[in-house]
Design brief:
Radius of gyration: 17 Å
Bound molecules: hypoxanthine
Distance between the termini: 31 Å
Largest sheet: 5 strands, mixed, barrel
Number of strands: 9
Strand order of the largest sheet: 5-8-7-6-9
Structural class: alpha/beta
Length: 270
């Protein structure tokens, strides 16, 4: 793994000569974030050695390098999901690559189903913690100490300082935000009503099929992380029958300008 990561990093460094400080993973329907960047280079995933290739509708696959204000950023346009068939090591490979390109702070976005009754479709949730219920762990197997320790401290998976800054920005920009706990499942089915209830009982506010593995791997390498989720459907009796991928994409699109501005300002001001 170490050698593969370094090989990919060398290839990217040779092609772009760019050392980003911020990494951003763009979730469902949030891909237009790159419109806010002064783009310097775009590398399609299929041109990057050792990179998996994304297959899901609504996910474009490319690493986009550029600046926001005076900050250097690499954005993942399209991520890899466990339900697509990738192993958790493949899902998180790009996070390892980002780290050795120079990334110190990772911002992750996603779409999720809400189980907190204070949420509604379109709510923006700053992720303050997560519950990992995915069936495979990205750090399972022999640990390579060059990446990080065997037993990773997860007391602060999401940077408290970044959360405070993002909340300040949300007030300044007049964007309504919540904070909440994200529970990660494998998908690709949406949850049954009983499963949404379980998610709520377990203490989470929203549920999705991504983010948790990437955040674990970022924390393994001591990368500071920030996560934001758009509630695209509500997992309750009244709303469960309508949930579909189209609904998810449409709701994510509506919240997109606010999420974009929040992330952009966080990068500029943090
Ligand atoms: N469940 C799981 N993943 C999701 C959902 C959901 O309701 N909405 C968007 N991604």
């Amino acid at each position: 793994m170490w050698e593969k990561v370094q090989e990919t990093v060398s290839y990217i460094k040779n092609s772009t000569n760019f050392s980003p400080e911020y990494g951003v993973i763009l979730g469902s329907g949030l891909g237009s974030f790159t419109d806010d960047m002064q783009v310097a280079f775009t590398l399609p995933y299929d041109e990057i050695p050792n990179f998996p290739v994304s297959t899901v509708l609504g996910h474009k696959g490319a690493l986009v390098f550029g600046t926001i204000g005076d900050k250097k950023v690499v954005a993942m346009q399209g991520r890899f999901h466990f339900y697509e068939g990738y192993s958790m090591k493949e899902v998180t490979f790009p996070v390892r690559v980002m780290k050795y390109l120079g990334v110190e702070k990772l911002i992750v976005s996603n779409a999720s189903g809400g189980v907190n009754p204070n949420y509604k479709v379109g709510s923006i949730v700053i992720i303050k913690d997560h519950i990992n219920m995915a069936p495979e762990h990205p750090l399972r197997g022999k640990n390579d100490e060059r990446f990080g320790p065997r037993f990773v401290n997860m007391s602060e998976p999401y940077s408290r300082k970044m959360i405070v800054k993002a909340k300040e920005i949300a007030i300044d920009l007049n964007i309504e935000v919540h904070d909440g706990i994200y529970l990660g499942l494998q998908g690709p089915t949406f949850e049954t009503l009983a499963e949404y209830r379980m998610v709520k009982i377990l203490g989470a506010d929203c549920v999705g099929m991504s983010t948790v593995p990437e955040v674990i791997v970022a924390r393994h390498m001591d990368v500071e992380t920030f996560g934001v989720s758009v509630i695209t459907d509500m997992g309750d009796e009244e709303n469960i029958d309508t949930v579909s991928h189209d609904e998810v994409l449409e709701a994510a699109k509506k919240a997109e300008p606010n999420v974009r501005n929040l992330i952009k300002e966080l990068i500029v001001r943090y």
